[in-house]
Batch of 4 targets.
Target 1
Amino acid sequence: MKKGKVTFNQVMFSIVLFNFGSSVVMGVSTSVGQEAWIPILLATLAAIPMFLIYGRIITMFPEKDIFDITDILFGKICGKICIALFTWYAIHLCALVLRNFSEFTQISAMPETPQLPIMILMILTTIYMARSGVRTLGKWSIAVFFFVVFVVLFTFVTSIPQAKVDDLLPIGEHTGAQFAESTFQIFSFPYAETVIFLGLAGSFKKNDSPYKLFLYALAIILVVFLLVFFRNLTLLGPTMMRANYFPSYVTARIIGISDFLARIESTISSNFLFAGIVKITVCLLVASKGLASLFGLKDYRILVLPLGMFAMALCCILYKNTMEMFAFLKYYPYYAFPFQVILPLFIWGCGELYLRRQKQERNI
Amino acid sequence: MLTAIILFLFLTVIIYDYKTALKQAEKGIKRIYTVIMLISFIILILDSLQISIPSPNILITKAIDALFNVQGRG
Amino acid sequence: MLRFLKKLCAGKATDLDEKIARLNYPLEEHKFSRSLDENVAVIKKLFNNVDIVQYKMIQSPGKDPIRYFLIFIDGVVHSEIVNNNIVEPLMTKRPEGGEPLLESLLATVVQVGESKKINTFKALIESVTHGDTVLFVEGCDQAAVLNTKQFAVRSIAEPDNEKVLSGPRDGFTESLIQNLSQILRRARTNELKTKTMTLGKRTQTTVCICYLDSLVNKDVLEELLRRLNKIDIDGILDSNYITEQIHDFPNSPFRTVGSTERPDVVLAKLLEGRIAVLVDNTPVALTVPYLFIENFQVNEDYYFNFYYSSFSRMLRIMGFFLTLAVPGLYIAVVAFHQEILPLQLLMRIALERQNVPLPAAVEAVIMLIVFDILRETGVRMPSNIGQALSIVGALVIGQAAVEASLVAAPMIIMVAATGITSLLVPKLNAPIIFWRLLLLLLASSFGFFGLTIGLSLLFIHLNNLKSFGVDHLSLEGSFSFQKNKDIFIRSPWPDMIERPEELSENEVRQQGGGNNG
């Protein structure tokens, strides 16, 4: 066992949890109501080539993360710009997710408490985890993954008696443009956010195939998303699902086993939180790694704390209210597109050229 | 109340870090550390005093609206 | 002329005194002299005011007798051996054979099985205080250490805090030699290595490191030796003195060094590639590396039917979470998430709580502390008073407090559940007390959210811990059976094919085993 390396399953589960992160709370795109499973499938299809590209970038430069790669490919100045962009995306995403969770916790459990203490507790936990390093994150993911999957399965099974299968119909109510928009949204939030993991690629083991890693993770995510979607839809119906900010939470409120185990939503919310901690930690880790390499520093751990504080500050001023948070979801795909698709595509292209040139040089 | 919480948080965190991690840190790290901490501290304090700071999201949404007109389609 | 002689004599005497004054400390470099009188004078100076030390001058028979000098401590030596096997032969026989005198003495006169030669005062002090008899001979700058040790040793009994229903019942005693013999009797192989070292500047305690040569992880062994050599302390009275100095995370409440009082447990750990550290004068042996799961493993698991063992192990793991989280859960439910309770239960709790003046969180903290007080008093209480104590605890706190509406009845049930489940994992008691209070605090101010955060912090902390470079909590995420055979379940013995990977260099435990099971 090498130092600072994480095993295949650890990475895979942390990718899965990263994708659950805030999307399970916010609900997978609900704008097309009962037909949302179609955009979920479409977005997964769209994510496959993207994930393969991420995998290719990692295999091209094994045991290097994106910050080293851009440095090799683009040289000092352009490389630094790329690193700065990526770092900003990571820290911004960190703040966005943190805000999702503080809003969620405030609305669902503690309407009178201000959000700041909630944020402080969450960010301190993630700072602790990020400082502990990638291995701790990996081990955490293993344990939490089983817990999260268990809860999802449990709620799915217990929701069956109350499910109204009629809610799945009618099919074909929405237009192609609506589907396209919904697909785009699911693609960018959460699937393509996995681009953040390129910042941790240096900790993957060399002989673990990244393609397998990403695709297996994608398969698990797809299954869970569909389970969650069908559970929410059949319990709430399309109208209610659209009307609620946090459909999964409301669903858990309805689920119950006879009279005894009812209203389990508050336990479910802690389940969301576990996944959310993974997502925030990954963002924070990558952001501090990025910042460290931006200034050419060796030790990134010490930067975790100030960056965490910065994420919290950013998180406080991001939105004025919950409405704004959900309104931003519409803009998010456009904003994230350059980071999620264009930057990796660019790195991939340049990387292929670089490798080819290197091969030629070797042949000569 | 919130201001007090923020003050307390920063105080404990900085004292803790000065006793442990920051002791052997390089000079460059210390400088970046201080700058980021200062920025976040100012933002948080201003926010807790109800002085509104423009959100970076406004810039983003405006730019995207200008390019793709998301609002109109909504 | 006379004056000159007097001066000479006086000069000689002051010389000796000065020499003695100079050599007081440190004694390490100082060697014996050839003159018996000088040695005797130095020794008497060294053991000044140590009245239990016995000195004895003896002369051999025959003409121009050889003078011997014996030194030992009354009570720690076997006086029969000293009298019959040392003093008597020395007085009645002359050594046969020539030079060197000391060798021929040991070979022909003294009748003691174990002896060695020393030439420093430091070694002399160590041997004499340990129960050996030291023999000086006129004209020799060496002395013989004769093994005449005799201690009062407690007889082997079952350790009180590690009782078993079935399986071997012998436990360690305070004698290192006896403890080692108990281990050796179970492993008749030269692979079992026992390295001894002396720790503690003043107590000079013997510490023995045991391991099986072909199984041990060499990195761990090296690290252990390095840490043991770094220990600088004046006295070691119990193995915990060592535990806290070789700990990976001295500030963590969790122990990353195992301890046991049973030889069978030590041997089981040695067979998995671990290393045991035995300390003289204490019945508690240490084992490293220590994994978190070992807190839930009990030696009886392996002596009973595996279904039963697996079940009780899962109970223990559950008990850990319950004793940790029950107070926090209760407070979170009562103060924040009443909706989770069925209506009737909620009504009952509300009814009970309606007359209680304190907020639930304060009530819980007080009750938990009261429970810990009862537990702490019970531990060191003579057993006949213990009964009175339990009556006071049960009746006064349990019944009277509820009747007087000082405490709600559900709170008593909660505290009782916490206390009983904590007995399932006695090894984790110390960390649990702290984390339980932290969780309670977080839950009382943030409900389930706080509880989740608290559990997360705990889990991150556990994941960070290491024991001699090995992860304390191993979560590789492997689905292979061999990796998970001894975690939540205890697999039957034919299936225990591999040793834990990170502990041992030799993984296969049964060559081709398990296929016929």
Target 2
Amino acid sequence: MMLRNIIFLFVIILSGCNSEKQQSDKGEEISDDWSEVLKSSRGKKVTWMMWQGDPYINKYVSSYVVPNVKEKFGIDLEVVSGQGNQIVSTLIAELEAGSSSSELDMVWINGETFYQLRQIGALHGPFLEKLPNTKFIDFSNKFINKDFQQSIDGYECPWGNVQLALIYNKDMVEEPPKSLKELKTWVKDNPGQFTLSNDFTGITLLKSWMIGLSGDPELFTGEFSEEVYSKYSDKLWDYIKEIKPYLWRQGETFPANIAQMHQLFSNGELAFTMSNNDGEVDNKILQGLFPESSRAFIFNEGTIRNSHYLGIVEGSDKKEAAAVVINYLISPEAQLHKMKPSVWGDGTVLSLNELPDSLKVAFESIEERKYAPDREEIYELALEEPAPEYMIRLFEDFRQKIIEQ
Amino acid sequence: MKKKILISFFLVITVVPVLAGLIYAFLYSLGITGVISKGLTFSYWKEILYSSGFFLSLFYSLIIGAITIFISFFIAYFIYPFFINGSGKGQLIMFIPLSIPPMVWAFYHYLMFSGAGFISRLSYHLGLISNPGEFPVLVNDNFGTIVILTHVVMAFPFFTLYFIRIHNSEKIDRLTTLAKNFGASDSEVSWRVRLPIIFLKSRVLLILYLVFVAGSYEVPLLLGSQSPRMITVFTLEKMQRFDLYDKPVAYGAAFLYAIVVLIIVLFSLKRSFRTDEGRV
């Protein structure tokens, strides 16, 4: 009798094993009539999972976005903390559990998460053509209309546009190395003061270096090429192996994430750190986290420039309200506020030529960044994000060929 | 009947969910279930069994656990006699380190022992080093130095309190007097009377604590090395990184780790029961 009960319970529990892809109820669709969308969104609560690792970004969202969407559209925006892997894990768990609706309504993502979420069908779309403010977005820009070489196909909305920059302390580095060759010399002359983080930002630097070492960024456009990867990743590993003994801790270990690297930089253990946001140096100095002698620069070989995006979860039952929030986030008003260095300093995805003159002037007269390089100048050195497989392979090979050696 | 209901209830809330989880993880690792499942495949298991990552992490975790237990055992063994005859306030002090969460200990030790930490700064002001790079690498090092230290500061107070209980329940004071009456020296009493009793009576606890240390996550995440990685860090990295097809590998690694731990615990429990029955 007891055995029979236990077997019965096993069957019930294990029946969950075969329940994936059962999120059959896709919730509401987004109406083509925007006034209907606005009407039906009023009074709804939208849950947004986003990275909350920067106080300036958190403040922009909590003190500016949340009250504005409440006041203008009657939507309660609840922000929950989580980035790429947590978003993917949450949505996979929901799909496997066969939940009828998702806990999350919208997510802040970029290429590698977009790739994973498209693989499991967790993103709603296409929805971009339904948002009135997309008319201002610069979809002709290759750094906006493609995400890790994948066409966005209306499944995610561009939100901000940034470029990887290196940050140095000019009290420790009089003249920063401007090329990989100069960096090699500098690192050998100044052992223990340079490293890279073993996370998304560090791997983005490796991608930039690999493309730089190839001398031909066009090789990395389009789909993943095993031949291209093998040839130029070998060059990259040779380069890193040569400087490894002169890296921080002799290259035996690397900071686990960029926050740890920023900490090592701010307390003087490292002379360099890096950021995926070319304007971050300004707000980190304003926050008092970086010394005032910090400056950002780009290597002559260029660095990766990419956009970050907003997606609507397929299992959400508040897709229209999420669409209203996203439409507000790409409005000229919200983009202008976000671009100010004292607010966030995030690059806009809007095409200034599409804006009315008064707004165009407002964007052009945003206070200057003091410590970050000029936006126009670094744009000349911008490299496209290669396909997601390059990142997956670099991450694994960096462990096997560098960390574990 | 009442006893059977109670046993069924116990199994339902403990064994069944764990076994169901294990079976689910196993099926996931074979590609039979999961959102990315494409049918039965052994490719994930080939990666677990043929690449060195899993076994290196497992071995490293068990070694870190064993060193922690060894150090904590002897610290506790040598200090517990000083707390036996006290007023109880001494024993109360032992509860303080136990009340601090592991993550807080880890963070505290990071601030103390990192290259730009408190001790490094102190050394700089004393003129012992001229820059943070000269400070010895203690955090994130391959030997897991501060990982071990962090676990030791939590383990030895716990062992101390446990040894006091054993000392009293096994009437070690009387056995000590008896041994001395037969002419044993203090050293002989310590090594040939007290140590075997304390060790045998705490053996299961030591094994369980070893498993706890080997399976800890927050402490090695902050203070441990990236190569080799503790088994939990290895598994979670596979689970959360950029490649969706690493997830079944993570499930397989978690399944195999659970089986290894289960074997260790069952084996030690069996040995313990045999000891209690006088069949060492």
Target 3
Amino acid sequence: MAAHAANYLTKTANNRLGLWLFILSDSFVFGGLLVTRFVLLGDQRPELSQGLGLAVTLILLLSSFFMNRGEVEMAHGNQKGFVRNTTITLALGIAFLIGVVGVEWPLAAAHGLTTDSSAAGAVFYIMTGFHAFHVLTGVFLMYVVLRLGRKGHFTAEKHWPVEAAAVYWHFIDVAWIFFYPALYLMGLVAG
Amino acid sequence: MAKDKEVKSVDERRKEVLRNGAIILSLLGVLTFGEFLVAVIAPPWTFILWIAALWKTFYVVKDYMHIGRVFGGDGEAH
Amino acid sequence: MFLRSALFKGLLGQAVGTVIGVAFVWMLRILFGAAPAFPFDAHREPALVGGAVIGAISFMVFAGVFDDWFKWTRGESTPDHHEPDKDKPGWWRYFNVDYDHKIIGVQYGVTSLIVLGAGGILALLFRIELAQQGITFLNNEVFDLLFIGTEWYQHTSAADLYNTFMSLHGMVMIASILLGVGAMSNYLVPLMIGANDMAFPRLNAFAYWVNVPGALLLLSSLFLGGFDTGWTGYPPLSVRAPIGVQMFLLGVYLVGLSSIFGAINVIVTTLRLRAPGMTMFKMPIFVWAAFATAIIQLTATQLIGLSFQLVMFQRLLGMGFFDGTVGGNPILFQHLFWFYSHPAVYVFILPGLGVISELLPVFTRKPLFGYKWIALSSLGIALVGFFVWAHHMFTSGMTSYLRLPFMYSTLLVAVPTGVKFFSWAGTLWRGKIHLDTPMLFVLGSIVIFLLGGVSGPPNGTVATDLHLHDTYWVVGHFHDTMFGGYIFPLFAAIYYWFPKMSGKRLNEFWGKVHFWVMFPAFLVMTLGQMYVGLHGMRRRIADYDLGPVVENVQFWITIAAFVIFSSILIFLVNAYFTAKRGEVVEGNVWNSRSPEWQIPNPAPLHNYSKQFAVIGEPYDYGHGDEYVNMNPAPSPAGD
């Protein structure tokens, strides 16, 4: 038994390193998108709904908070708490997606900011689109661990998939921490 | 410090970690509003926005993502 | 039997998935009113791209690459290793999803050689056109005769077939090299560090298999009008090129995914699965090279993926990233592209240089000179490589003050490379040199890579590069570095480790013939390329008018290309007959100290039945004490 537990710890440590390497790799994509934004738009920014931007940003921050709670509850063996908090995270994640893709995109398009209108439009849709795709994968992962968690697959000692989904989710949050100011706050609205 | 933790019960430890998570959230929220205000009041001060973003990243990476675990630390704390 | 293999299922899946994807995107576009259903022309490009993406995913699903992961999402556990099916013949495992790193390594290697052959044939075809002035047999009439769907695209130039072959030759060879790098890393790293497999066997299988649909997409561009952009795919040309360019961009993207996931595996394996006592500075030197390579692949690859996606989206959705009329900037593409594509050449050469350092001590029976310096020089090349990309852009019109820093960072690469040469010379010095076939290829590599190294700084220096940029000189330099840094070391590695893979030793005589045919032919080719370049021959053009001397040299370059190709045929025939009825060799063929030679040939299923311990230095040839103790006493700690 002891050897088995040690084996699990070793494997989890390997998995953790692998996940972080993937995050390092993926952050180069987000970095490249930021470079694209600053090379093409410089000190200008697209005209976007400030209230909506702040709202989705807070939703994502809040979702990270609940994701953290979910992971902590699982780590202390509280399955109910895990399920409750992760469900909230999942809902917030979907709310973020709706906010960006379902509301912000049509709103921006209605104001004349379309994919082919200008470099600003191209940058806006590619950045939010790439990020939304990551959110979608994060939501999917969370759905998987939530389903497994409900069935009682995780324990306080063994819950690597929960940790992985959580770390990935926070990483998506970090990406937005940079994208939000880059898209909504930095520079002046192109006139 | 590690010994302090061992004395506490599982539930106390859990509450402590959860409280820490809430503190981080409020810090992130305050920083985000700060960013928003800077953008409204003083648009040219983009460097403040960069510093705020890095600051927020530091909190998330350290306390939510537990980067310390990659290097073997913090193994028992969760 | 073959019809039930993962390869066939995957291919079938890709075909079905492509059709479904095309129909799906077509219907979506009709539904959202993008254009009327007919004529189909208006939907062709998005539908084909959607088909290609879904086809590639279907390949992976049908081949069964995701099977274990699907089980995990349902909460089922799977064994660490799936034991091979005893009823099936030996070749069966190579055509199916297998998690053993040795199988995957060989899969990588064979695929690499097949793709290498395809790239070579493309080169031979357009070399014929260059053999003489005025030959233009790769013209659009021939193109339209050869390929389907001619009404689907418009030619952008009169020499589209030449341009497509030339462009594909570049990218197909890069895919082949990446596969070959994957072959060496996968096969050798776990064996050398005493692990029984890579850290993530399933991810490893994924990283191999994703190359198959990737390579197919890359080659399918031929049938969709090709692409005339060169392997770099610069916009605005790539935005205007035929649909084929989309398949090229997607194919490269998939091959890039393979690089990224392969790199995660190599790094975690190297950092965490080493045998007891094997510190970083006691690893076989090849592992250092593979590790440094993986660092580049892990990070930089994302940016070529991004740059190619931006082009795809510009074509599909009219997003004006590189369109100056709406505020885009084509130079941005070059920055993103070269941020990967320069470090990429270090991905190509570092494993090869690692093979050179690995084999030299074995065949000189002497310690490797300056082990730590070599290990760190690999890392140094990888890290400096991140800061040199804009040296490809001295003539691009980028901000001119950037030229100087990038010139100096480029020249800085010569320092760690020089360290390697110094160490190789030091290792050869007064060694007992055994000229077996692998050693011939190693020595050939050193000579050729030296030529490549010496012809490099003129390209990196702004003043000379303005003259040399886009000439055949650059082509000569590049082929030097690729043959010296990859092709020759690859063959050295194949001749050296073939017994470990098959239990048989490649025929020495034909191996030497292979070398002595390929080596001089290559020198003729590369020196000829540099010569015509200095006399005004530009890269990537189908015809030229530079007088009889250049024409004469061009002719000999073409002959040399055919000779190189035939030497590789000699190798393939040799490999075939060796595998059928070659000399069976057991044990330590080359009398090496490395752990992989202390176990039987071919390497057993789970590599090491017992974990060995490292007790000495890896390259202390001639000093008597051992590197590894294959039979250590069990440690009392019991870990």
Target 4
Amino acid sequence: MLELKNIDVFYGNIHALKNICLKVNQGEIVTLVGANGAGKSTTLKTISGLLKPKRGEILFNGGSINELNASDIVKLGISHVPEGRRIFANMTVMENLEMGAFIRDDSKNIEEDYEKVFSLFPRLNERRKQIAGTLSGGEQQMLAIGRALMSKPKLLLLDEPSMGLAPLIVKEIFSIIKNINALGTTVLLVEQNANMALNIANRAYIIKNGVIELEGDPKVLLNDESIKKAYLG
Amino acid sequence: MEQVFQQMINGISLGGIYALMALGYTMVYGIINLINFAHGDIYMVGAYVGFALTTFFNIGFLPALLISMAATSLLGIIIEKIAYKPLRKSPRITALITAISISLLLQYTMMYFVGPQTRTFPEVLESKSLKFLNGNVILDVKNIYIIAITLILMIALQFIVRKTKMGKAMRASSYDLEAAELMGVNVNKVISFTFAMGSALAGAAGVLVGIYYNTINPLMGSLPGLKAFVAAVLGGIGAIPGAVLGGFSLGIIETIVSANGGSVFKDAVAFLILILVLLVRPNGLLGKTAKEKV
């Protein structure tokens, strides 16, 4: 479904991603784990079009997308939940979801999809009219995911959904991610919380200093003490 | 007492004009963090378009107002595309200097074509007035038009920003441009739309000032432009309600100062108030630290 071929990304002179190759197949949960600053968010931003690779190609369902703008990539079915949630804190919960559906004009189905998001996140349902900035961290994360789902993505990019959240909420969010995947959305999950991510993923990549160091079965990676020590802390 | 009412009427009329202009400053700033110093000159162009339409083409006041607004919104879009868009990733000072150049360019291009002399705006509204309190308070038809049109435009703007898809995209973009892009919002379109709306309001303000003071000239935009900027900062730049509050406050204060014999100082007072407010509330009256920008 998604394939990154030899991607190089620079921030000015800093070589942030080096020759990244990564694949996500339809229906999978793939996770990209690694330490802070390893290049995880950069990878997602490059896929969603916020950053442009200097070299390499990104294929989505067979077509090259690395020349497209972020706003066009959403229309192809890739939805990015950015790091730090980035909800529109000045708008209501409902308006945030409306923004999520910005690219669609099938208003009848949109109404149904609001309800789907609310059934996934019942807590948002109680807060439809509330200004998003007043939500708790966990609720904001739920809103960010719900907003991303409103564009009906085929592939959902999640950047550190556990960041800054209490362990109980993290558990809840991860079970919802599994749920979303079970309902038919492919997921590429970036996490520092490697244990949680490896537990729900079908496949995993480990990234370090902008280089993919390892690819494999998350269960195997989880049980390998040397890998844990070297990459996951 | 009569004096107070009369000054309130004048102050609200003048304040409405400042508020219309301040809205343009604040909306553009909200999206691209640029103080568009050419904004006052867009208002000047609006006044001239209104002048030409009513004088040479004998078009009525309301159609002339609408055509002027359309013309200035087009001008705003063109200025953004040619002058500001290529600089979007440059340092802010570059764009700011460009805005000042555009301002001078508009002023002197206009002067080249129409000459530097002041022109008299035709009497397009019948000169009627309502008198209250034994004729001591005069509500001129002009005041009624200015206040009514200002309010209608503000309500229309509020509707667009709150209820339409484009308006919501504007608010989202002003909060977080990148996140809005991730929603599929075409940022270029939103920026053009913002310039179009801001410039249309400035054009309307230009025509209203033409009928209010009856005179226009190519440099008429610079001082009101600066004062509308003061109004926007006073209210909290980036906040739409702030621009309205700032505009009306400034208009009323200026009128009060003039009425009490300080007309020579009225411009100085505007800037003095700005300094004082910023000392106490650096984000302006309605600007918050975590601000809603549009």
